Q: What sequence folds into this?
């Protein structure tokens, strides 16, 4: 039996495509246009931002269209104009300025895992906001929708062909309920406090030196302590499981 015809592994994330509808899905890329536009692309120096960007898979719009909302609550208040020769992948289903994408797939996760469904991460879109949902995809034979709510009326906006319209990733059910959160003064942990103060002093000095022409800080441009997974004191030389990038697998077509 070839790899492409092996039985579905229950540990996999599987998208069962409905009918002949196109499902365009990819590992979420690191790059963002607005990050490219920052001075010397400094936004990419933020490792937590980079990791979040690639934390899951993006579903793309199969065609481009224009949409707007006139401010009224009815279904007809959301106006959608498909590009020539295409059908818009979004509809007005709920009213109240909500734009709805019907995702053409049933997703299946392994037992005990839900699917986080949300707007593309760190991709702001003026005039509209993507709503989030958590779906129990380990048992439910139901499709779900990706919904965006207009943030103001009488503004026409575009969704381009192959523009990300949904971001997904599995999450283990019940993990958050197991966590007992505490709020404590930093002085309760002297070692942790000393590490923070060493980092804070170093950070302040570095930022001040950035303003000095020819300084070492200007040559370095930015500190890479977190990027390297270490601490200012050197107590942590290489944090266990520290990541500087994510490389998620693309969805494979199984026949």
A:
């Amino acid at each position: 039996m070839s790899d492409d015809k092996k039985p579905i592994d229950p540990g996999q994330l599987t998208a069962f495509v409905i009918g002949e509808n196109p499902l365009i899905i990819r590992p979420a890329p690191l790059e963002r246009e607005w990050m490219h536009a920052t001075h010397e692309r400094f936004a990419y120096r933020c490792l937590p931002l980079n990791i979040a960007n690639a934390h899951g898979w993006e579903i793309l719009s199969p065609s481009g269209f224009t949409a707007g909302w006139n401010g009224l609550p009815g279904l007809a208040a959301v106006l959608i104009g498909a590009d020539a020769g295409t059908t818009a992948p979004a509809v007005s289903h709920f009213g109240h300025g909500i734009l709805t994408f019907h995702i053409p797939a049933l997703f299946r996760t392994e037992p005990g895992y839900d699917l986080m469904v949300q707007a593309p991460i760190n991709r702001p879109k003026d005039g509209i906001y993507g709503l989030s949902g958590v779906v129990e995809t380990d048992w439910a034979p139901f499709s779900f929708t990706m919904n965006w709510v207009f943030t103001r009326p009488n503004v026409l906006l575009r969704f381009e062909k192959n523009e990300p319209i949904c971001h997904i990733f599995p999450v283990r059910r019940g993990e958050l309920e197991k966590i007992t959160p505490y709020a404590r003064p930093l002085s309760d942990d002297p070692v942790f406090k000393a590490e923070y103060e060493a980092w804070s002093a170093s950070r302040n000095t570095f930022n001040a030196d950035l303003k000095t022409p020819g300084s070492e800080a200007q040559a370095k441009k930015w500190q890479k302590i977190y990027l390297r997974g270490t601490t200012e004191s050197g107590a942590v030389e290489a944090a266990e499981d520290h990541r500087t990038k994510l490389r998620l697998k693309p969805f494979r077509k199984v026949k």
The helical segments are 33-36, 47-53, 175-178, 190-209, 216-220, 225-228. The longest helix spans residues 190-209. The chain has a mean pLDDT of 92. The two ends are 12 Å apart (CA to CA).
